[in-house]
Write a structure and sequence with these properties.
The complex is a heterodimer of chains A (380) and B (292). Chain A is of the alpha+beta class and 380 residues long. Chain A is built from 12 helices and 18 strands. Chain B has 9 helices and 14 strands. Chain B is globular. The chains are: A alpha+beta (380), B alpha/beta (292).
């Protein structure tokens, strides 16, 4: 789960990484008050969960309190890369002489944390690795031993830092590692880390992503998990216990596995446009598929629903009852096509058919989708 | 004799007294798996499906000679259980558990580097050596015995591909679901190596999906070290960026890393034929097996 900048910045402060004085606000009036406390000039930063805010006009400087109010007002009504702005961070504006990059992330393939230092900041570090490899140092970290100051110093020296700078940046990197370690991060990034005209170092932007599977041990952070999902249907998916991702089309999808769901999207896309990706995982019940139908049907302009499920760990005959009940209660009039294989498949087919679901007994998803396409062409 | 698992392997079930552990134990026994013991702390002395239950792994190893273990352990308990299991000298661990914290996975993986244990998962559907034994939750009737090795990041797609292969008259030696988390214990090249050495495997089918670099690393490894034919399918050609597609590891990053296209071209460059859709795997397998 990605954190808002102000949340990530709060974690930085807890672990000893200095950041500019800041406050998060939800109204222009509040922004004015906070800017007065912090002192002008300030930066106004839209709090949205996407990168590249600088290029998207979501970060502005304000020299006067009137500018603070006007700027906050325009940001709060706007959206950045499709995400509505509901909160704005007011932060002290600092004079910067140099920007650097510090990051700790997970090397998924080697299975270790990896520390990254770059002498150039403010841009994508992957881009830097390609364009100026000498200005970037990376180092795998032993998760059992942690990142030591001497290792951090070596990395700083390697990218060309000198003297006092090495000590300061290296201790900042070990502090960032403590954030990563303490909060089960997948990513902890300071980009940019700024050297001010006074020779101080401050984290100007904070990016933190916490591993969803570890949230149970970070309840003290009081993070609103569902609240940060903007799409109401994606939020609903999380609530009912399925993975739902909205797509542009008009063919609804329910699949009983992530791989099968992705493959179904790809196959539908050949001739039609999928409306969503939905994956139930291994916990199918009548109620879950009733809720899944309800969720998929909320998208407007749907032409059909395709159900693709396997009965391994899942009781698909129970799932079929949920779908049937939904169809009956809501008088669903668009075609619902199902491919259901595995344990108790015949019983499942019968329940589906009783409720007007068209069952495809062929074993390949391709054939089932072809049947669905034929059905819609015939109807058109 | 296939890889990792056969009908002789003495299997231990951790979390055998839980609802899922118990019902899956029954399916595994029915399939022919040589289950010798179960472990649930505090429930030693019971019997589940006529299998003796112990309080500790060390006891199960000492009394029954267990050499491999399946985990139906809750996510919070996986780290502790894995360390104890490694210390008890178990050589093969299959972690079925979903939602294990990534930092715990990294810690177990680092701990395991000092011993010769092979750990598969987490979020794995399991391992099945077709016609002999299975350690996991995959439905046994999806697989025919044969000479194809199958490696999959997704459980459901391993079924889809296997059923289609079965109908066309093909079967598998061993099927391994590596799991779909951002960090897994066994990477694809580790398994490619085992299949390359296995006299009962003629061809490997690789089922991948968006996210991470498993398939790209596999492509590099195939170029260098694999002589047997490999056929692949990658799911998620139409997955949007920055959205988790069900699996924790199935995400294309905002900067475009982890796309299906990147995996398809890396594999093609390594001489792997990549199916556009699951059913096309069958045609490519047919082609490669008759050509060689």
């Amino acid at each position: 789960m990605r954190l808002y900048e102000f949340e990530a910045s709060g974690l930085f402060t807890r672990k000893g990484i200095p950041v500019p004085r800041n406050a998060v606000v939800t109204s222009p009036q509040e922004a004015r008050e906070k800017a007065e406390e912090i002192g002008l000039p300030v930066m106004l930063k839209a709090q949205v969960l996407t990168g590249g805010r600088g290029f998207a006009g979501a970060v502005q400087a304000a020299e006067s309190l009137d500018q603070v109010e006007r700027g906050t007002e325009s940001l709060l009504g706007s959206s950045v890369r499709g995400l509505p702005v509901q909160q704005v961070m007011v932060a002290q504006k600092v004079d910067v002489t140099k920007e650097l990059y510090l990051g700790i992330t997970v090397d998924g393939y080697r299975g270790t944390p990896i520390a990254i230092v770059s002498f150039e900041g403010g841009v994508s570090v992957n881009q830097l690795v390609m364009e100026q490899p000498k200005s970037v140092a990376t180092r795998p970290v032993s998760i059992r031993k942690g990142l030591h100051l001497t290792e951090a110093r070596e990395m700083c020296l390697k990218v060309g830092m000198e003297g006092h700078e090495v000590t300061q940046v290296a201790s900042m990197l070990t502090a960032l590692y403590r954030v990563f370690e303490s909060y089960d991060c997948l990513v902890a990034e300071i980009n940019p880390l700024a050297r001010t005209t006074q020779g101080k170092y401050l984290g100007l932007d904070a990016k933190v992503e916490i591993d969803d599977s570890s949230l149970y041990r970070h309840t003290d952070l009081n993070l609103d998990v569902e609240g940060r999902i903007d799409n109401p249907r994606e939020r609903k998916g999380r609530e009912i216990g399925v993975a739902y991702v909205e797509l542009d089309g008009d063919i609804g999808l329910i699949a009983s596995g992530a791989g099968l769901g992705m493959a179904s999207v790809d196959i539908i896309k050949q001739k039609m446009q999928p409306a969503n990706f939905l994956e139930t995982g291994g916990g199918i019940t009548a109620e879950l598929l009733y809720n899944a139908m309800d969720l998929v049907m909320q998208k407007e302009g749907l032409r059909a629903v395709f159900i693709n499920i396997y009965g391994g760990i899942n009781p698909i005959h129970e799932g079929a009852k949920g779908v049937g009940e939904y169809i009956k209660e809501h008088n669903v009039s668009i075609p619902v096509v199902a491919k259901a294989l595995g344990n108790r498949q015949e019983e499942t087919w019968e329940i589906f058919r009783e409720h007007g679901v068209q069952v495809v007994t062929d074993i390949s998803t391709e054939k089932a989708v072809e049947y669905l396409a034929g059905l819609l062409e015939g109807a058109a | 004799m296939s890889i990792l698992l056969n009908r002789e392997t003495k299997v231990l079930i951790q979390g055998i007294t839980g609802r899922v552990g118990q019902s899956q134990t029954r399916w595994m026994l029915e399939y022919g798996t040589n289950i010798v013991a179960g472990v649930t702390p505090g429930k030693g002395g019971r019997m589940v499906e006529d299998i003796p239950v112990y309080n500790t792994i060390a006891e199960a190893v000492a009394e029954q000679g267990a050499e491999a273990s399946v985990f139906f352990v809750p996510p919070q308990g996986v780290k502790e259980a894995a360390i104890q299991t490694i210390d008890a000298g178990i050589k093969l661990i299959v972690v079925i558990t979903e939602h294990v914290p990534v930092h715990d996975v990294m810690e177990i993986r680092e701990y395991a580097t000092d011993s010769d244990v092979q750990i598969v998962g987490p979020t794995s559907p399991g391992i099945i050596t077709v016609g002999e034994a299975k350690m996991g939750i995959m439905p046994g009737n999806m697989f025919n015995p044969g000479r194809i090795g199958l490696i999959s990041r997704s459980g459901s797609l391993s079924y889809e591909v296997s059923v289609n292969l079965a109908i066309a008259g093909f079967g598998q030696s061993t099927v391994v679901g590596i799991g779909a988390d951002p960090v897994v214990f066994t990477n694809i090249p580790d398994l490619l190596h085992l299949f390359e050495e296995d006299p009962d495997t003629d061809l490997v089918v690789l089922v991948g999906e968006v996210g991470g670099v498993q398939e790209e690393e596999a492509a590099e490894y195939i170029k260098k070290s694999i002589t047997k034919p490999v056929v692949a399918y990658i799911a998620g050609l139409n997955a949007p960026q920055e959205k988790r597609m069900g699996h924790a590891g199935a995400i294309i990053q905002g900067d475009g890393r982890g796309t299906a296209q990147s995996k398809v071209s890396a594999l093609q460059e390594a001489g792997v034929e990549v199916a556009q859709f699951p059913v096309e795997v069958v045609r490519l397998v047919q082609k490669r097996l008759t050509a060689s």
